[in-house]
Specification:
Low-confidence stretches: none
Number of strands: 6
CATH superfamily: Thiolase/Chalcone synthase
Order of helices and strands: EEHEHEHHHEE
Helix content: 25-40%
Strand order of the largest sheet: 1-6-5-4
Number of domains: 1
Distance between the termini: 11 Å
């Protein structure tokens, strides 16, 4: 018996930070985890949390939906309150690209107009942890302007965990999107 190897489209991202003592360029992160939601979204087989759990992903859609549309906007509003900002202060709200309806609800409930929400799920689907940087590159990777853009970002998911962070970037420092069909064969077994 032979097995065909199927390569799915994937994304990857690299972010480079520069150390600074300048208080104006410090990054504040607000994060939370609710361990009671462990089984709401999990990948037990991939991470071997427990040897008796079945391989693959597990998700309780109703619980995940309620978590995302309630807890994430609460955090975004708390973040803006701590920073003394409003949605008008940001050029873009960049969310984990989980589901377009959920993303629209999060933006609405946190006070952001739809035109400020970055959307790349329609182009790349849910690329997990790379969805935020991929969305930024998709929106600004071909922009060579030096005018800084201010982003409020929020990732959420497995655990249940969620975190918000803001930062400013000059589009000229955002590299363009690179498409490739190259891959490394290291670690691929002949009979997967």
């Amino acid at each position: 018996m032979t097995a065909d190897i199927i390569f799915l489209e994937m994304g990857g991202g690299v972010t480079l930070f520069e150390k600074t003592d300048d208080a104006e360029n410090q990054i504040m992160i607000l994060s939370a985890t609710d361990g009671a939601g462990l089984k709401a979204i999990s990948s037990p087989g991939f991470f071997w949390r427990h040897p008796k759990w079945k391989f693959g992903n597990a998700m309780d859609g109703v619980e995940v939906f309620n978590f995302a549309v309630n807890r994430v906007p609460e955090m975004l509003k708390a973040y803006m309150e701590l920073e003394g900002t409003t949605p008008e202060d940001y050029d873009s709200l960049v969310l984990h690209q989980s589901n377009l309806y959920i993303m629209k609800q999060i933006a609405k409930r946190s006070g952001f107009p739809p035109e400020k929400m970055s959307v790349s799920i329609d182009k790349f689907a849910n690329t997990s942890s790379v969805s935020i940087p991929l969305s930024i590159v998709n929106d600004y990777g071909t922009d060579s302007s030096d005018t800084p853009k201010r982003f409020l970002t929020c990732g959420y998911g497995v655990g249940l965990s969620w975190a918000a962070v803001e930062f400013s970037l000059e589009p000229a420092n955002i590299f363009p999107l690179v498409y490739t069909d190259e891959y490394f064969e290291d670690g691929l077994e002949e009979n997967c």
